[in-house]
Amino acid sequence: MATPWAEDRADRVRSFPWYRRWLDAAVNSHGARRLERKVVASGTIVALSQYTKESLNNRVDGDPVRYVMPMGIDTVHFRPRPRQDTAAKVGFIGRYDDPRKNIGLLIDAVAWCRRRGHPITAVLAGADERNVIENMLRERGLQDEVELHGDVDHESLPDLLSGLSAFIVPSHQEGLCIAALEAMACGLPVISTRCGGPEEYIRDGETGFLVDATAPALGQRILDIVLDNSLRQSLGTGARRLIEDSYAEQRTEGIFWSSFNEAFPMAKAA
Fold first, then answer.
1. Mean of the pLDDT values across residues 248-258?
2. In what side-by-side order are the strands of the sheet with 89-93?
3. Are 110 and 146 in contact (CB under 8 A)?
4. Does the pLDDT at position 167 exceed 80?
5. Residue 47 covered by a domain
6. Would you say residue 114 has pLDDT above 70?
7. pTM of the predicted structure, to 2 decimals
8. For labelling alongside 166, which of 101, 201, 250, 270 has CA 20 to 30 A away?
9. Residue 59 forms part of a structural domain
């Protein structure tokens, strides 16, 4: 499982009209929570992160979620490449129209940097509904400084990442954030809020930075990376090394079969 049900929906529910929030609180959420508890307690559950494992186990007795298997990253496809763009550019790939992703924080951080005289730009990819984001950009005068893309096919992702100085995770909550791991495999440092899954692989000063969810905190770390080529390269090297050691497909395949054989010993014997 990637992320608990309630945490995944919290921000979207807040955007509902009042009558839908009432219906969700009175009916939908109770049924969904019961179903989640039943599923978690009924079989062998493998979580994508330690954060997700602990969150799910808090919902039922007995800690039934025993295994953590991070998503394996293709370290051949996602690998460091020469930077295609030397501009000070940061980015995020994912459903940036999802309120949980808190993309407004990234936009505000870019605005914070630019007010201090640093021409930071950004790339957002992975969403088709752009109205809310476009409104944010117009309000901040950043419509020409932030590129908006829809879904990017798997083959093109490394090329998009190779134009960035850093990958940003501004989210309220993440079960893992696979896109950040793919960015790290490409040799990019990651700056993330303390939002769950990313806290397991972002090591301050080694693979990136963890920050408070404020524009000045995020903006300052963006400047630290884009203005210091040596730091950027050091963090990128550390990020790639961590992916190779802990998140490469070969590594997670071994975790999967170890968990599978323990959960289903008869299948192993057969």
1. 79
2. 146-149, 121-125, 89-93, 166-169, 190-193, 208-211
3. yes
4. yes
5. yes
6. yes
7. 0.83
8. 250
9. yes
- Residue 1: pLDDT above 50? no
Residues 34 and 152 in one domain: no
Residues 6+ apart with CB under 8 A from 16: 24
Q: Transcribe 24-58 into DSSP letters.
A: IIIIIHHHHHHHHHHHHHHS--EESSHHHHHHHHT
Mean pLDDT, the chain, as a whole number?
A: 86
> Do the Cβ atoms of 174 and 197 come closer than 8 Å?
yes
pLDDT digits (tens, 9 = 90+) for 208-241: 999 999 999 999 999 999 999 999 999 999 999 9
219, 113 contact by CB (below 8 A): yes
Is residue 71 within 8 A of residue 52, CB to CB? The reply is no
**Same domain as 104, residue 22:** no
Instruction: Report residue 236 as tokens.
Output: 């990128």
Q: 72: which DSSP letter?
A: P
